[in-house]
Structure formats: C-alpha cells, structure tokens
Write a structure and sequence with these properties.
Layout: H1 13-31, E1 36-45, H2 47-60, E2 64-69, H3 76-90, E3 94-100, H4 109-118, E4 121-125, H5 133-136, E5 144-147, E6 151-155, E7 176-181, H6 185-199, E8 219-226, H7 234-245, E9 249-254, E10 257-258, H8 261-272, E11 276-282, H9 289-304, E12 308-312, E13 320-324, E14 328-332, E15 336-337, H10 338-343, E16 346-352, H11 354-368, E17 371-373, H12 376-380, H13 384-392
Parallel strand pairs: 2-3, 3-4, 9-11, 10-15, 11-12
Antiparallel strand pairs: 1-7, 1-8, 2-5, 5-6, 6-7, 8-16, 9-13, 12-17, 13-14, 14-16
Helix pairs in contact: 1-7, 2-3, 3-4, 8-9, 9-13
The structure holds SN-glycerol-3-phosphate.
Length: 400
C-alpha cells in the first residue's frame, strides 16, 4: 500500500486490527466469498493520477486486456484510451472492451470503428432497442480494467473529459479509483467475465494462463459483485454488515445518494447508537439534480438522527467510497442509491487495511475543507419550492 498512514486519535493499532478482522469474518461468512491476503491496493485520486496509471498498465500489456465501463464518452482522453487499446490489439494482445448500451451511448462512433479495425473486440451490454423492457433498467455500472490477469483497476472513473484534471474547478470532476495487484485481481476479473459472458460467445482462450498470484502487499481484500435482483443481494449485505458492525465512525462519499427506506433507517439507527456518520455528497455542481432531490427528501430525518451531511462545492463529486472505524474501506462503482443496490451490476472492494483506509480518510478530510455542511436548523427552513421539488420526484424514486 502506498498511502501515508495517519495515526488514529481514538483507536490504537490493536483496535483497528480487531475491527478489521471482525468485519472481514462477518463479510466472509454472510456473503460467502473469501477475502484474499497479500494484495497491494493503491488509491488514485482524480484523473491526473487515475488516467496515467491506467494508460501505463494498458501500454505494458503483453497478453490480455479486459475493460468494462458504464461511461465512455468524448474528448481527448476518450481518443487516448482508444489509441492505447488499439495499439496493443495491433501488437497481438487480446483486447476486449465491454460498453454499457445506455451509459456509453455518447461515445463517438468512429472511435468504436477504429478500435474494432485495430482488432479490439468491442461488445455492448444490453443495448437498446434489441432488449426486453425488463432488462432495460438493469445496467452494467461496473468500471473495471484488468491487464495480463495481474493488475486490475476499479472505482468511479468514467472515460470522458469530465474526469480529467485534479478537481480544481467545475470542469474537473472529483473521483477515486484504485489499482490492485495480488490475488484480489481474480475477483475483479470475474466481475468483467460475468458481464462478458452475457454478451460474447468466447469467455476465455489460450492467452489466459490462470496462474497463481504472488503476494504483492499486505491488504486483505474481498471483492463483492452486485447484480440486479428481485430479492436481497450481496451489495445490500455488504452495506448492511459494515453499518451494523461500525463502532466508531462511518464516512461515506457518494456521487448519488438516494437510499431506500431500509438503508435510510439503518443509517439513522447507526447514528443513534453513537456511531459518527459523515456523508459527503455533491453540491451545486451535481450533474443530475434529480438524484440530489432523491436524497434530500431524507435529510431532515437523517440530520435529526445525528448524521452529518456535507455538500462538495468546487465540482461534481463522483466518488463511491466508504470507510469504517479507520480499519476497513469500501471502494468501487456502487453509489448509495437504489440503482446500485437494486438495479445495476456493480463491484465493490472491501479492503481491510489500516494504511489504505487512512489514505482515503485523508482524502475525505481534504474534501471536507472544500464542502459546506448542511445544518439542521437551516435545512428545516428550506423554501417551499425546494420542498415541492423533493415531493415531485417521489413517483420515480425507485429508478434513482
Ligand atoms: O452512474 P455513475 O455514478 O457512474 O455516474 C455516471 C453518470 O451517468 C454521470 O452523469
């Protein structure tokens, strides 16, 4: 792990290790997926660090590149990825790119044609209109890159100009991605394989070696995949277990916060039993105001329960990160909304690592310095227009 550790003011090393181990075992038993040891997980903050790391890994690929994304839009960065993937395909690397049929709709068609001509196998995930209406609502929201079965990336970043830069102003979105090395790469690769299997006949070939992984670091990682479901699903269990296990502090930073009644109540209940709950959300620069409204209907209740809520001011906040008790971090594609919990294909890494968690908590502290807290007394005095807007989205809240 490359992050600089921050000593916990409230909890010593032993305490965080105990919390981490307890949450790890609960997750293993209740989700049924073993965590792996010996991983290196490197946090990457904003496009200035995320994109060079991804492009570097692509450039070094010798055998296989698998990439899936919900967002592949436009701009110079979109062309740079297409060039990098195409160059490797021309060099004989097997390159597979899975694009969500709705999320990636804005991609330039000639980029897709160019990549295909270079030998990249491009597949579309549930692309309308050749789709049953029952499937339209279930999108591939995962962002995954796996290179040579040994290096993986996941997190919130989309391949588009909006994500370039360092969150300095409204044109540079704030996001967090991670690079993973070690046995947890298999779980990330499986998240790609699940989507690919649905869209393409060939799942693997002789270029996949299926070798073992050398230890690459100290982090314990469980890879949790979420999939559309009518009933309870693993992503919901993951969130429920970490909230119910938290003893000291939970920090959430999420692009889209519109939980259902169950998770709203669970957040409130967790705060009422004395756990500090801090939620960081986008503010005036949010790209989808309707999503903000979906969460704002819950603010009054959450604030009354003692939950603290901030809104990030400079630009769109697009992160999907949660830390618990300075011991465990969740990072991946999952927002705290119904789309991520009920409808879409998601991936989240549960990372049991004190240093990694300290690094993400440090990012959170930095972000708070550029955020405004929502105060309960002021929120109660919000305008009638705002209240009416909150009510107006109720009929569509289950799709947010
Ligand atoms: O769904 P997210 O969180 O990946 O965000 C992508 C949005 O469509 C951006 O507008």
């Amino acid at each position: 792990m490359a992050a600089s550790p921050a000593a916990s003011p409230d909890q010593g090393t032993e305490g965080t290790e105990h919390s981490g181990q307890r949450i790890r075992r609960r997750l293993e038993r209740l989700i049924g997926i073993a965590a792996t040891e010996g991983n290196e997980v490197l946090p990457l903050r904003n496009g200035d660090r995320i994109f060079p790391a991804m492009l570097e890994a692509i450039g070094r690929a010798e055998r296989t590149i698998d990439m899936m994304t919900y967002v592949y839009w436009r701009g110079d960065i979109a062309r740079r990825f297409a060039d990098a993937l195409g160059e490797r395909a021309r060099a004989g690397v097997r390159v597979r790119l899975l694009l969500d049929g709705i999320g990636c709709h804005p991609i330039e068609k000639d980029l897709v044609d160019r990549m295909s001509a270079d030998g990249v196998t491009v597949a579309w995930f549930r692309k309308p209109p050749y789709l049953s209406p029952f499937k339209q609502n279930h999108r591939c929201h995962r962002k995954v890159l796996v290179v040579d079965e040994g290096t993986a990336f996941t997190g919130g970043v989309g391949i588009a100009e909006e994500w370039c830069g360092d969150a300095r102003d409204e044109n540079e979105w704030r996001d967090t991605h991670v690079r993973v090395r070690g046995p947890a790469v298999d779980g990330v690769a499986a998240a790609f394989a699940q989507g690919w299997a649905e869209c393409h006949d060939e799942l693997f070939d002789e270029r996949d070696r299926f070798g073992g992984h050398e230890p690459a670091g100290d982090a314990v990682v469980q890879v949790v995949r979420g999939s559309a479901s009518l009933g309870w699903q693993d992503m919901q269990t993951l969130m429920r277990v970490v909230l119910e296990s938290a003893e000291e502090r939970v920090r959430v930073s999420t692009a889209y916060f519109a939980p259902d009644r169950y998770f709203t109540e669970l957040l409130g209940r967790t705060a009422r039993r004395g756990v500090e709950i801090e939620i960081l959300l986008p503010g005036p620069r949010i790209d989808k105001r309707v999503s903000l409204l979906g969460g704002q209907q819950h603010y009054e209740r959450l604030l009354a329960d003692g939950v603290r809520i901030w809104q990030f001011q400079p630009t769109m906040l697009h992160t999907k990160v949660l830390t618990v008790d300075r011991a465990v971090s969740l990072v991946g594609s999952t927002n705290i909304n119904r789309r991520s919990m009920d409808h879409d294909e998601e991936i989240m890494l549960a990372v049991v690592d004190r240093d990694f968690t300290a690094a993400l908590d440090g990012h959170f502290d930095d972000d708070l310095r550029r955020s405004e807290e929502i105060r309960e007394w002021r929120w109660k005095k919000r305008s009638r227009l705002q209240r009416a807007a909150e009510v107006s989205i109720l009929p569509i809240r289950r799709f947010l």
